[in-house]
Specification:
Strand content: under 5%
Number of helices: 3
Radius of gyration: 14 Å
Shape: globular
Structural class: mainly alpha
Number of strands: 0
Helix content: 40-55%
């Protein structure tokens, strides 16, 4: 399974997809609250699809989205949170000059 063949080859689509991967990982860990002993949140492989700051992420992680299909076919042995961080790291490494 190759992600490159599953997204349109134009700058806007690529930017949305690659930036979305970084946002997905970031929005997963940004809700961490060390003071909340019962539910500290943080990296749990979940995000709130109804929160306005997460708009657009539903096109990055959905049932038939390329990133999720890659996870299910090749990387399901990792936690979803770890996969998101590893994917974001790969995007940053590949797009940095």
């Amino acid at each position: 399974f190759k992600i490159a063949s599953s997204i349109r080859n134009d700058d806007k689509t690529k930017s949305h997809f690659l930036g979305g991967i970084v946002r997905l990982a970031a929005h997963d860990f940004m809700d961490y609250d060390r003071r909340d002993e019962d539910n500290p949140m943080g990296m749990d492989g979940c995000y709130d699809v109804n929160h306005p700051s997460n708009d657009g992420l539903e096109t990055i992680w959905c049932r038939n989205c390329a990133l999720r299909l890659l996870y299910e076919k090749k990387y399901s042995g990792l936690s979803r949170a770890d996969f998101w961080v590893a994917s974001a790291n790969a995007v940053i490494r590949q797009t940095s000059v």
